[in-house]
Every structure is written in C-alpha cells, then in structure tokens.
Specification:
The chain contains 10 helices and 9 strands. By secondary structure, the chain is of the alpha/beta class. The mean pLDDT is 97.
Length: 277
C-alpha cells in the first residue's frame, strides 16, 4: 500500500490478518510508489494491492502506463488490485480527467476486469461526506464474494440516503460547478502562500501537500495555537519504513471550506510563516 496513506487501508489489512507492506511515496519518486523496487518474493506473497489515485494526501495521479504495469503484475502473481478512486472527479482541467483502473483495463480489452476492484464515493464529488454513500465495481467473481462479505459486515443504507444518492449520481452539473470552485480556491490559496513557501498544485483532489520548515507536528500545533486553523501533520498519515517516514516534514491542507474561509486560512498561514520562519 502507498505510504502516506488513508488509514483505513492499514486497519483493514490488520483486521484481516494480513501483513501491510508499505511503499514510500516521496518527492524523489514524484509521490508515486516505485513498484519496480518491490522484491519478487513480496509480489509472490501479495494477495491485495491498495492503490489510491488521485492520491491522498498528495493528489498525485498514476498514469495509464503505471496502471497497465500493475495489471501485468496482477496477472503474473495473481493478486487483486483495490483502487481507491474517490477523488477522481475533482481535477483542474475539464479536458483531462484522471485515468482510472477499469478504464485502462477496458482499453486493453480486459472486459472481465480480472482482479480489478474500484471504489467511488459521493463524499468528494458531491460534497456530502456525511452521507457515507458510494459504490464498488469490478471483477464479477470478486464482487460476488464482496457482496457476501458486505451482507454480514455492512450497515444497511436508509431509503432517504438511497434516494439522495440516486439524485446526486444522476447529476453532473453540480460536479462541474464543484470543480470550478476548487480551481478558484486553489488559485487564490496558492497565490497567497507562494510568497512565503513553495506551493505545488496537485494533479487532482482537494489537498495541498505542503512542506514545513519545522517538524510537522510542531508546525501544526503552533499554527493552531496562534491562528486557530487546523492542518494535518503528514507523519500522522504514514509509517516509518527503512528509517524514513515519508509524511514527516509535511502538512496536509484540505481546501474544503468556502472560498472566503480558504483565503482567510491561507492568509493566516502566510502570516505564520512570515512571523516565525
């Protein structure tokens, strides 16, 4: 699984009795896991690969060539690819949406989507995280087993939530407007922060992965104490592997508030940089 990562990946693996194997994503590898560096013996033991693209927290999108490479590895070593694509509909260029795992599989003529499972959510595309509504799709044989698992371990979705979900999935206009709002927020926030620190815009998603001039936990704590704004320390999202914690020295900023609030938070962060660093 990628490192840093959405913490449910690790928790689910541990609950299933699996051994997590972390792939550091750093500035040096473009925040994309180096799959070629994984030893063959690890691939032989692999049963499931977690893939997050667009990535949380970096916003990096993995290329079609990378996804094709993973499909080849899946064929060779017979593991399932579980692709978290929950940020796939938040991207800056309307003409260039992020490529998805099933899209690449279909382009390769893999109409059975063998060993492929993708997860999507209304939380991000429609700004309804409290709805807890999404879908999973992919290999029919895997889906059959997933449905049995979901029957015993999942919670039934209330009818009002189902109706609201149908409405949200059936409408694309609000998603286009949502992307436009994020473009506006990213432009405004990056313009404010670029005067005090390096800002790299993500390929997609709604996060800024910002390098800190001090320990990330200290930075986040002091920023909150002096300016009442919460950012997430990157080390909270990652594990130390080979003596490296790839999230250390970063904080994650989520531009999910209104434009005015995002600008206000960015101005406070700019002032914090200027006053303390």
């Amino acid at each position: 699984m990628p490192n840093p990562f959405y913490q449910i990946y690790e928790g689910a693996a541990l609950l299933a009795g699996a051994e997590p194997y972390f792939l550091n994503t750093t500035a040096e590898n473009g925040f994309v896991p180096d799959y070629d560096a994984v030893p063959a013996e690890v691939w032989r033991r692999c049963q499931l690969l977690y893939l997050c693209s667009p990535g949380n927290p970096t916003g990096r999108v993995q290329s079609a060539a990378t996804l094709q490479r993973l499909l080849e590895l899946s064929d060779r070593y017979n593991f399932i690819i579980a692709a978290d694509e929950c940020y796939s509909e938040i991207y800056p260029d309307e003409t260039s949406p992020p490529v998805g795992l099933l899209q690449v599989a279909a382009a390769l003529g893999r109409s059975d989507y063998k060993n492929c499972v993708v997860f999507h959510s209304l939380s991000k595309r429609s700004n309804v995280p409290g709805l807890r509504s999404g879908f999973v799709a992919g290999d029919a044989q895997v889906m059959e087993q997933f449905l049995l698992y979901r029957t015993y371990h999942g919670g039934a979705m209330p009818l009002p939530t189902q109706y609201a979900s149908v409405t949200a999935w059936s409408d694309e206009a609000h998603v286009v407007r949502n992307r436009a709002r994020y473009r506006e927020k990213f432009a405004a926030v990056a313009g404010i922060l670029s005067s005090v620190t390096e800002v790299t815009l993500p390929d997609a998603a709604f996060y800024l992965w910002l390098k800190t001039p001090a320990e990330d936990t200290t930075f986040a704590r002091e920023f909150f104490a002096h300016h009442n704004v919460t950012v997430l320390p990157g080390s909270y999202l990652s594990r130390a592997v080979a003596g490296i914690n790839p999230g250390a020295g970063y904080v994650r900023l989520a531009l999910v508030a209104s434009l005015a609030e995002s600008i206000d938070a960015a101005q406070r962060l700019r002032d914090f940089f200027s006053q303390r660093y």
